[in-house]
Amino acid sequence: MQQPIFKQIAVADVLPTRDNMRRIDETDPEFLEMVESVKPEAGGVRVPVVVRIHPKKKGKYELRYGERRWRACRAAGVEWIPAIVHESLTEAEALDLTYIENQFRKALTAQEEIAEIEHYMDRMAGDAEAIAKRIGKPKHWVLRRVHVVRSLSKKWKKLLETPRFSGWAVSHMILLARMPEHIQDQVYGQASPSWSTANHWTAVDLEEQMSQLLCLLSKSQWNLDDETIVPAAGACSSCSKRSGHQPFLWFDSDDQARAGDQCLDRACWESKRLTWLARRAKELRAKHPKLVLIAKNPPGRGCDAIVKNVGQFLSHWQYTTTSKTTTGAVPAMHVVGKGAGKLTYVKPVQSGSSSSGRNAGPTPLKEKRVMLECKRWSQVLMDLEAAVETSTVDQVTYKDKLRGIASMVAIIGNQPVGYSNAKETAEAIRELIAGKGDGELATTETALWESVKGTLTRAITWAGPITQTPQDSIEKAKWIGGVIGVDVDDLFKGICMRKGFTEPKSWKNLKADGTPKAKPAKKVTP
């Protein structure tokens, strides 16, 4: 590289390089201040720009760094600018000059940093190792940023360009891009503008949100090499939908990769878990015909799936753990938690024997039916929660939607949208008033509805036993269902017909006190 020379050059003869990924906002107050400062009466340009002889256009210079100063001179009408001129630079040397300038000047945005690495990949034939050596970074540092370019979903790319997510860094983008697109979309829903804290999530917060959608392979109860559980999916150990398939995106060492390998397809994981549980129950039932299924902890929304695929189970208040030799003990298999698939022994508890105060004995038929109805209503609440979460403002049944939703917010509260500073808040309000809001906040009606949905779902969430659903929750469900056009009574009727929610046929043979009816005496033929 020859020694550069210093001289004054015409502003009009300078052409900016396409290698510079920095975006310069000429309306920014800081830029406008620079425009004033470069005028001759204010002292002019004190720090020279760096250029090289343009490789294609005779008599012109290619700007390698100092673009803000050059743009400020052009805006101020300044004709000449001091410059350090390189007369012979290779393409690689020129690219390095621009990269180093951007790294040590005003901080790049996350999008600009990613764009610069993408540009290096184009110029250096995708050789991540060569790029890493040239810019002095580890190879995995380069690869993770390249992966953002290739794998970050279009939804996220568009959203991250908005001021609302200006606080997010490259580390956020890397966390998102390493996930399959369907998981990115799920996180997108969680971080939508209706969430008051999304803009303030740290990378750790974001990782915690996504971890709820992943499953640690080391916690599986089945053999990870087993290809027969769900044949179409194959074995977990060789699946591409796991973090260990692209370890450079997740781990810094082989030990971490082995210990922290995670499944990225929760739907497939759940399918395998249920299939394995059903297989395990069949194996145990072959040895123990009287086997019952038990759930120490409530399975939540997975209740229906377990009943459908594995079988009806006893909840924790319906049995006591005991030893094999205890009178009345029966073999049992856990269907949830760390002990899922393991054999134990329990003694079923007759309803009322431990909590209602009456003597142990059969549960009266009327009480059985009350418990079944509560179980059905518990499922109604869960189905309605899902309906509210996916609802749009168009479903709101109020004739005057804005007034109706605003009234709800005034009475029951909401989750306000959060912004990082007063300027962003004021701008967002102006956009809503003008009807120019972005994404899910396109109108004030939508903004209000998205902010109140969380309050509505919490109002109908019941975390207690499914056979004890309170009447107050049912009344709230009917009101909230009416708001979004869901007939809760029709929903209840439909659930009554589902497997696991119909009245057992055996109840027809029970007396009111829950004891079996006497079988009719057989006629004796003379």
Structural notes for this entry:
The chain is of the alpha/beta class and 526 residues long. Among the domains are: 1-106, Alpha-Beta Complex (Conserved hypothetical protein from pyrococcus furiosus pfu- 392566-001, ParB domain); 269-349; 367-508, no CATH class. Helix content is 43%, strand content 10%. It contains 19 helices and 12 strands. It has helices at residues 29-37, 67-76, 91-104, 110-123, 128-135, 139-151, 154-159, 170-177, 181-190, 203-211, 254-260, 266-287, 303-309, 365-389, 401-412, 422-434, 444-459, 471-483, 488-496, and strands at residues 5-10, 14-16, 49-53, 61-65, 80-86, 215-216, 262-263, 292-295, 314-315, 319-321, 330-334, 343-348. Strands 1-5-3-4-2 form a 5-stranded mixed beta sheet. A 5-stranded mixed beta sheet has the order 9-8-11-12-10, with no helix packed on it. A hairpin with a 7-residue loop joins β3 (49-53) and β4 (61-65). α15 crosses α17 (444-459). The termini are far apart. Residues 352-359 have low confidence and may be disordered.
Short characterization:
The protein is α/β, with parallel strands linked by helices and 526 residues long. Among the domains are: 1-106, Conserved hypothetical protein from pyrococcus furiosus pfu- 392566-001, ParB domain (Alpha-Beta Complex), CATH 3.90.1530; 269-349; 367-508, no CATH class. It is built from 19 helices and 12 strands.
